[in-house]
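User: Let's play a game. I give you a shape written as tokens, and you guess the letters that built it. Ready? Here's round one.
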């Protein structure tokens, strides 16, 4: 079925007037589908990645290889989500070939935008995990992602500390499925 904006509309959680290709620090949160713990366990306040967790970790670290205008800041892969700060660096020197349009539209990604970077990351992780599990086209991620644009150093420092402390707070984290064991809908049967 071709795209019809009257039928296929989803409310965006991005800021309407913000250009997500602009330099700045973007705090990102991604959650797995059904918040299933795919990436490992927290043991004594430290994240212990399993094989799938290492895929998520390594793909995140590879983002600058595919998007040279992105620098990685603090990040952590948790059992069922990821927190990270991506920094778009000023690329005005050498010009940007793909500037317009700057607002995302369904089916029309904006080159170099945070949404495009995240879409690529989620796709790479899902593809790698699908190869391992012999599945096809199964996204392991929830739709969309959460972001916060950090404009000042103090809030950015608080975000960094939040990310670093996340494994230590796992027992109290609302994303921890132990708080809602009946809400579990498993994509994969992973024995943890």
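Assistant: Ready! My guess for every position:
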């Amino acid at each position: 079925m071709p795209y019809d904006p009257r039928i296929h509309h989803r409310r965006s959680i991005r800021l309407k007037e913000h250009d997500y290709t602009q330099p700045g620090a973007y705090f990102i949160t991604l959650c797995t589908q059904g918040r299933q713990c795919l990436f490992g366990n927290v043991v004594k306040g430290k994240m212990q990645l399993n094989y799938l967790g290492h895929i998520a970790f390594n793909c995140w670290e590879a983002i600058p290889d595919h998007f040279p205008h992105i620098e990685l800041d603090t990040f952590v892969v948790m059992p069922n989500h990821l927190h990270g700060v991506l920094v778009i660096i000023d690329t005005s020197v050498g010009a940007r070939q793909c500037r317009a349009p700057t607002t995302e539209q369904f089916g029309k990604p904006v080159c170099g935008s945070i949404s495009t970077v995240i879409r690529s990351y989620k796709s790479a992780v899902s593809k790698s995990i699908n190869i391992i599990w012999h599945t096809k086209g199964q996204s392991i991620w929830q739709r969309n992602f959460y972001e916060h644009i950090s404009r000042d150093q103090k809030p950015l420092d608080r975000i960094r500390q939040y990310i670093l402390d996340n494994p230590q707070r796992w027992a109290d984290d609302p994303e921890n499925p132990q708080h809602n064991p009946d809400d579990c809908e498993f994509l994969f049967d992973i024995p943890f």
